[in-house]
Amino acid sequence: MATDTVRLAVKSSPLPDGAAGMPRVTVPTETASAMVDLLKDVEGDVELAVCPQLIELRLPDLRLASSLIDGTFPDYQRIMPAINGAAATFRVCALAEAVARVDIVRLSDVNKRAPILRLTTRDGAICLEAGAAGGEQALETVEAQTNGCSFSFGVVADYLAEMLDAWPRDAELGVQQSAPSSPILFMADERPSEGHLIMPSVLKS
Fold it and tell me: Which residues of the chain are under the pLDDT cut of 50?
């Protein structure tokens, strides 16, 4: 699990042999990012040692050790909405490309007045809108499978783009929201152990 209080990502995977007694710990963001960078070009197994105060990644020619964050990680299950079926299912590459196109309007605004996109589900489509009132605006429509439950929410463009970039381009991703102010949940049926939450943003009229 990882969170910045506005976004949350969760992924489950089986524990490796010998890790059953590993304590639950909270790793600093900088440490996690450094570990990911070090592991990109590593083939084969590596060692990870954990105690309540310290974590250490052991590579053949390098060791990275870091202190841990003291305290309890937020209970994500308290804010995770009940999974009751996606309101819309779409292909990741289609929505990612649409986000990039409408985001040109935001990036071209020297005052960066409208970092938030409006995402709306309609029959058989997801609609994206970008732009500030009185300025340039953009609209994109992406084909989607919908279940008749329409909703509309604001989302920070960068957050949506980064979330989509974490999934395979050809994945079919579902989106749902239980109430207007509730977190937005993105999940894929073929990868049930993974999920992303993004808090909705206030749209200025």
Answer: none
